Amino acid sequence: MNESTATTPASSDPSRSFFGHPRGLATLFMTEMWERFTYYGMRAILLLYLVAAIKDGGLGIDDKTGSAIYGLYISGTYLFSLLGGYIADRIIGAQRAVWFGGIFIMVGNAMLAFGQPPLFFCGLMVIVAGVGLLKPNISAIVAQLYPEGGSRRDAGFSIFYMGINLGAAIGSFLVPEVAQSFGWGMGFALPAVGMALGLVQFALTRKHLGSAGLVGGAVATNGRASWTPIGIGVAVVVLIVSLGVMGILPVDAVAISNSMSWVIFAFAVFYFLYLGFFAGLSLEERKRVIVMFVLFVACAMFWAGFEQAGASLNLFADRHTVLNIFGWEMSAGTLQTVNPTFIIIFAPVFAAIWVQLGARNLDPSAPVKFALGLILMGVGFYVMVLASQYVVAGEKVLPTWLVLTYLFHTFGELCLSPVGLSSFSKLAPARFVGQALGVWFLATALGNNIAGQIAGDFQWDDVSKMPEQFMFIFWWGVIGGGVLLALTPWLRKYLVGVR
User: pLDDT per residue over 425-442, tens digit each?
Assistant: First the structure.
């Protein structure tokens, strides 16, 4: 990322503050809030729309293919973040990346609203590009508002994190409800409107960012050359997508999803082998690379379970959950509001717990926190095992089962997600920190893609198999977390000097 340390006007003018922070933080808070409103709002209805019958306005895609498309889409946003970071760092700067990313997101969601399959899938690709441009770079600008670093920057990120979850909560509530009341088209149009509002406020208040994220790392004369490989890659992707949309090139989403998981994992393995044997690292650094690889696998496993929220759990809410609450016919996707709401409530609690444990020198190591995250994710699915047994008996269940599942998943997320990027940045050799953070995005992308594959294996037409399918994900998390706990004493020996 661009490491500019220029002090912005907002950071030096106390009359322009946001809860005692640079005024530019409010700009980024609101931009990210609207972007997450758009992202999570659309995510809440994406799979439901893909598999809905054509007579009901959906695309009528089978569950397995729809789940694969869902996984590829979620995964793609993280994969493109690597390229988005490169474009900002070397060519256009983070501010412009955020601006153009927001435009792509707005246009992509508008394309979804028309309901035409070719335009819809092209819209998904445009959104992937937009999120990849905006998501990593807006966080980079937050960091640059605090050139002094320290606890003030940490507090700034905590406020920013609240914007993320506030947008996710509002979007996950409003978008499904609008889609249910006014049709799928209006449901997809609302996120486009949300991103438009985010762009308007970004344009009006962008001046408060000062020079933070304004210039890319490469000088202007090198910008043209830097676009060449990117342009070639984009052209190839556009050509393949166009041929698929026109029906000239057969596209099997399930096969692509399966291949993508192996490609991502193979790339990660080769990268870690390179670090371990060919990067000229010291013995101590190579030991830390081993820890990084273990955490990479744990991260992918966690998100493979967690992202069932928009996949198998979303379908469970739609097909097997009582959605009439005191006369209110709730949309299935509205239950996606639960997780970000819990994050807002419990994030300060978990932060206080870690601080108190740290003061007593009892703060768990990163492997322990990752293991707890996996186990809590697994426990959440045991709740679904119990709920699905009622479904097998021919009943629909109350949404409280899903709420309890999301509570455990939120606790797991708060154990694993906040410490993830920090751990990778600490474990990576100094000259490889940027690449290590990219590998973290790869782990998330891998987990999200696997999530679509797991959801696609559910046999919704045979509910008798549902308990064992949820039990598989329970063991996936609990065994994974248990193995990581067993490895922790060994891994701790490789964490000397890392806190």
Answer: 778 887 777 677 788 889
